[in-house]
Each structure stands twice: as structure tokens, then as C-alpha cells.
Amino acid sequence: MGITSSFSLLPRCEWTGLRFSPHGKFILLTTNGSVMRLLDAFDGHPMQTFAGHLNNRGVPIDGCFTPDSRFVISGSTDGRVHAWNAESGFKVGRLPFITKIEEGNSKAKVICTEETK
After folding, report:
1. How many CB atoms lie within 10 A of CB 24?
2. For residue 57, which of 79, 35, 32 has the smallest C-alpha distance?
3. Among the listed residues 61, 67, 58, the one whose alpha carbon sits nearest the alpha carbon of residue 21
4. Per-domain residue ranges of the chain
């Protein structure tokens, strides 16, 4: 049995990306919906669901980890940036509007960036 059969997301929500945490213990599963999932990198077991960020356009919204793997950061289609504690799943912060995606731009993406060493 594979990872895909062990949990479900939301109706009409597709996986759009996978990102390993810097310490290698977690995988962040991003979607084109208003939810992301945290998986155990060794057995694929779902650990957390991160929600509460707006994606009313169905565009892929990227997420990333902080360098210490403690927090997950994501944008949203309303221009806000959200942060969750990776282990507890609790939202720990929300920054105000940064840049609002233009109405009608169905190809717009909110992208997280990270520094590489």
C-alpha cells in the first residue's frame, strides 16, 4: 500500500509539490487548495494538516520550512504570509498583505524561496 492510499486531502484538491525539511524527518505536501499536509519522511504517515491560508483561485501555493525545520511558511492568494509550528500544527503567525495577486490572473503563483548553501 502506498502513501496515496493512507490519507485524503479535500475534494477537488491536487498535490502540487513535495518538499523535504532541512533535518530530513518531514515532507511537506503542497496543493492547489487551502490545505497542506506534513508527512513523516520515513513511513509517509500523515502528521499535521496546515489550513487557514486562502486559496480561492485553485493555484499551486508553495510552502517551505524554516532552516531549523520548526516552522512551515506559506503564502496565500490574498497576499498574506502564514506560519505554523511543524510539530504541533498550530498556526503561530500571519503577516499582513504583502502583494495581492491580481484578479483574473489564473496563472499567478505564491512561491516560497529558500537560501541554499
Report:
1. 10
2. 32
3. 67
4. 13-95
Compute the Cα dihedral for 22, 25, 26, 27 and give only its sign.
positive
C-beta neighbour count of 75 within 10 angstroms? 24
Q: What is the mean pLDDT of the segment spanning 62-85?
A: 88
Identify the CA nearest to 12 among candidates 29, 28, 35: 35
Reference 32, options 66, 77, 85; nearest CA is: 77
Predicted TM-score (pTM) of the model is 0.73
CATH T-level topology, domain 13-95: Thrombin, subunit H (2.40.10)
Q: Which residue has the higher pLDDT, 38 or 104?
A: 38
Q: Is pLDDT above 80 for 43?
A: yes
Q: CB 47: neighbour CB atoms within 10 A?
A: 15
Length of the chain: 117
pLDDT score at 68: 95
Using an 8 Å Cβ cutoff, are 31 and 61 in contact? yes
Report whether pLDDT(41) > 80. yes
